[in-house]
Every structure is written in C-alpha cells, then in structure tokens.
Amino acid sequence: MFLFANERRDGAVRLLRTPFEKHLYADYLTKHPEKAEAFSLFWAVQSKQLLDGLKAHYGTEISEAGAEGMRKLLEIAKEKIEFNKCEACGSRLPRMWTKVTPEVMAKDAAMEETYFFAYRYATLLIHPTVMGVDHQLHNPPQLPNMLLHVRTIVMRTVVLQWEWFRKSKTITGTAAVALNALSRAFAEPTTPLR
C-alpha cells in the first residue's frame, strides 16, 4: 500500500512475487508430501553455492567439520534430487528441487490468474528487461488489480495454514476457532477480477 501510495506500483508488483511463490510451494508440498524431502535437501545445494561465493569473494571458509557435513548433505541430496551438468559453467548442481514449474503448481492450486500477475508479470519486472525498466517510467498496474491479487494470496494462505494446524494439532482454543472460521469463510477458490 505504501509503494502504491507513493507512485512505486512497479515495486509493489515485484514484492508480490515472493509471498505468491511461497504459497505455491506450501500448497504443492501439502498435496505432494513425498516431495518435501527433496525440498528440504535442496537447502544443501543452496548452502554450498552460498559458501562457495563467500570463499571466492571474501576469503571466508567454514570449518573442516562443517565442510565435511556439507559434503555428506550433498551426497544425500544427490540420491534424492536429479543433478545435472551446466554446459556453460560446468557446475554439477541442480538449479531447482523439482521439475514441476510454478505455472503447473498454480494450476494445481487453482490460482492461474494470480500466477500470471503475481509471478509471470512480476518476474518480467524483477529482471532487467525492457519491460522492467520501462515500468519505472510509464504506467504500471493500478491499485484495484493489486489489491485483488493480494487478497487472493492472503485468503488461500489462511486456508492452507488451517489445514496444516488442523493436521498437526498444534493450535487450540480461541486461535483454533478463529483460524477455522476464517478458513471456512475463505475456502471457496477466489480469483481476481479481470
């Protein structure tokens, strides 16, 4: 709302991608719990890339024990995630924890319209494309469109949270009653107006 109020609508759309993507992953993992291990093991791949970058740019290294633990985690990840070799850089690490695309996850979550605006459109604004630069100078989306997408993501996330809390039995009392009521109210799939 602050960005929209200060004529930085392009910034608001860019920020929308992160909560939408987190919702998609949570929804996908809820429906496909067998993929949770690959998701959690991908942390080892990301950590290795981060540690390699710290060493290359700042000369910072972790202890030998830490490096050995990282090697073991990567070996476990290699058994669960398909590793491939990048022809350009020679890296043998996977780029993603799943081959299922965000677009497919959005269809599975019945959020195709929100996917277009909050992911595909936002991605074009995030990257240094002509569209990304042009929107800083011209007329990006208007507030009502943004609010409808934010509303959809929030509502769907509340439903997803209730499902997790209900199954894990980690929420009780007034909080459980309130979250359950919100979840029931938001349960019908909603998509933004065009």
In terms of topology, how is this protein built?
Layout: H1 2-5, H2 9-31, H3 36-58, H4 64-80, H5 102-108, H6 112-126, H7 130-134, H8 143-168, H9 173-186
How would you describe the overall organization of this protein?
There is one protein chain. This protein is mainly alpha-helical and 194 residues long. The chain has one domain (2-186). 69% of the residues lie in helices and 0% in strands. The protein is built from nine helices and no strands. It has helices at residues 2-5, 9-31, 36-58, 64-80, 102-108, 112-126, 130-134, 143-168, 173-186. Helix 2 packs parallel to helix 8 (143-168), helix 3 packs antiparallel against helix 4 and helix 5 (102-108) packs antiparallel against helix 6. The model has no long low-confidence stretch (mean pLDDT 77).
What is Rg? 20 Å
How many domain units?
1
Main sheet record? none
Structural class: mainly alpha
DSSP helix fraction: 55-70%
Query: Whole-Å distance between the termini?
Result: 20 Å
Number of strands: 0
Task: Return the string of H and E elements.
Answer: HHHHHHHHH
Residue stretches low in confidence (pLDDT < 50, at least 5 long) are: none
Q: What coarse outline follows from CA principal-axis ratios? A: globular
Strand content: under 5%
Average of per-residue pLDDT values: 77
How many helices? 9
